[in-house]
Amino acid sequence: MSILTVRNLQKSFGDMAAVKDVTFSVEKGEAYGLLGPNGAGKSTIINMITGLFLPTSGRIHLNDIDVIKNPKQAQKSIGVVPQDIALYQDMSAKENLKFWGRMYGLSGKALNDSVEEVLEIIGLTDRSKGKVNTFSGGMKRRVNIGAAILHKPELLIMDEPTVGIDPQSRNHILETIKTLNSQGMTIIYTSHYMEEVEYLCQRIGIIDHGELIASGTMPELRETIGDRSRIILSYDGELPEAAKLQHELAGIFPEKDITILDQKLTVFHKEPQLVLTDFIKAATSTGAKINSVDIVEPNLESVFLHLTGRSLRD
Question: With a threshold of 0.90, does the pTM exceed it?
Answer without folding.
Answer: no
